[in-house]
Amino acid sequence: MRSYGQYCSLARALDVIGDRWTLLIVRELAARGPSRYTDLRHGLPGIATNMLADRLREMEENDIVRREEAPPPIATTLFSLTERGEELTPVLFALGRWGVALMDERGDDEWRGYWLKYPLEQLFADAAPGEPPVTLELRTGDGPVVVETVDGAVRVHSGSAEQPDAVLTGDPEDVIELLKGSIDVRAARRRGVQVEGDAKAVARVRPRI
pLDDT for 6-16, tens place per residue? Predict the structure, then answer.
């Protein structure tokens, strides 16, 4: 690991987390919780096997990541964030917020549905917090994610909802535009987004004012 050689807290922090892929590994573990090596490979398209192994080892040495052997029937090594690693979550949120302006067309970039956790939880809220909560299921990538309104906020996790109020299926750019209110349900459907269930529930998840 190369050091900036500067007696500055920012420089010291970047000595530890400034290498390529490190913060994205933190993103994966923060979004998904304890993960197998193969889970991390799936969520980090483009990373070389030896690079991931090297980064995980360095992150363990710096008390950012821990590994533990899961008991049967899983019986595999799981990686998770340490308490110090979890302290990086606000850093991810801040960088994600700063990067919103860079989100132009997706092009050929890879996409994972659960990556919506950060923008939705940090930038969106319940537009009608006084009403009963709603649950949306978004199918925009390799697996569904659940979006719930909780006490005026928005919470996101991987998986399917048992009884979602609405299910949105389509390209991530179009689904996000619908949630932002930039397009309505009719326009979203013209773009190929499938909207099943209560369309009014979709309007409950809106950007914070």
Answer: 999 999 999 99
